[in-house]
Amino acid sequence: MGTRLTTAFAHFDQVELRLCRYLNRSSGLPTPRAFFHLVSRLGDGWIWYALIVWLAMQPGGGAAALQLALTGAVGLLGYRLIKQHAVRERPFITHSAISCAAAPLDRYSFPSGHTLHAVCFAVLGGHHLPELTLPLAGFAALVALSRIVLGLHYPTDVAAGALLGGGLAIASLRIAGMIAA
């Protein structure tokens, strides 16, 4: 049983690496590289800070802005804690076939904090501003893709970040619902 599991994981790792290399190839072209670099930099927090400030300035938006800010802070602490224990090297460090097309924020890749926050804020932002659901979801998807294209994350790092961000947003909405009740 152990040998089969080891073989299955090795096969999965090879499939993931092939996908990572395939997506990373586009970073060698100037236009995709510049586009995904911009998306990734906006995903550093600038879009989310602007959303929080914009919500805070809306009538009755203070509670929503506070919810986004607090949930984002919990996400930041959570993903940093996981990264300290998972210590998975970034793809461009481990595999010479992956090029680094943007400066990493830290050494480790699991989970993707950019994706965690993009999904978290897309869910919360869409809840508070339903008319922005599609643009926020689309931007979150681009942030997730940018992290792989730029050679900074594996697909599983991004998937884990998305699951954590979605779960965090749902938990935040449930807690806020219980407080309001």
Topology (elements, then pairings):
Elements: H1 2-24, H2 30-57, H3 62-86, H4 91-94, H5 113-128, H6 133-149, H7 155-180
Summary of the model, kept short:
The chain is built from seven helices and no strands. It is an all-alpha fold and 181 residues long.
Query: Ranges with pLDDT <50 over ≥5 residues?
Result: none
Q: What percent strand? A: under 5%
CATH H-level superfamily: Phosphatidic acid phosphatase type 2/haloperoxidase
Roughly what percent helix? over 70%
Distance between the termini: 50 Å
Write the CATH architecture name: Up-down Bundle
CATH fold-level name: Vanadium-containing Chloroperoxidase, domain 1
Summarize model confidence as the mean pLDDT. 90
Q: Rg to the nearest angstrom?
A: 17 Å
- What structural category do the secondary elements indicate? mainly alpha
Give helix and strand order, one letter per element, not per position. Answer: HHHHHHH
Tally of discrete structural domains: 1
Q: Which term fits the overall shape? A: globular
How many β-strands, per DSSP? 0
Number of helices: 7
Largest sheet at a glance?
Answer: none
CATH class: Mainly Alpha
